[in-house]
Amino acid sequence: MVEKKERFEEDPNTLISQFQITQQQLQNILVQKETLNINKMEIERALEELEKATDKTAYKITGNIMVTKPVAELKKELEDTKEAIDIRIKSLEKTEKRFTTQLKDLQEKLKKIIK
Q1: Which domains does the chain show, CATH number per domain?
Q2: Is this model's pTM higher than 0.85 or not?
């Protein structure tokens, strides 16, 4: 039973397929991470502007309308969202490392088979 599994894992077509799938998954992770980083930068800019605000209220776009909210409440919402984004980015970075390691392992296996 172990021999069949090893032969299956060493099959070049299977390894190539695994390599391509892992590459696609890594690419998806990188896109998600970049999107979250952009969102985080926008939140940081919004927080900076709220720090400069002299008014006690500011506007927030909710759906198709704009509503006024207290600056302190908006800051809290933005900081909570930023914290959630940071957690998600860390999670994606761990997944990115795992996929990168898998790709290196698959690449080494493919090199050995090709030789």
Answers
A1: 2-114 (1.10.287.370)
A2: no
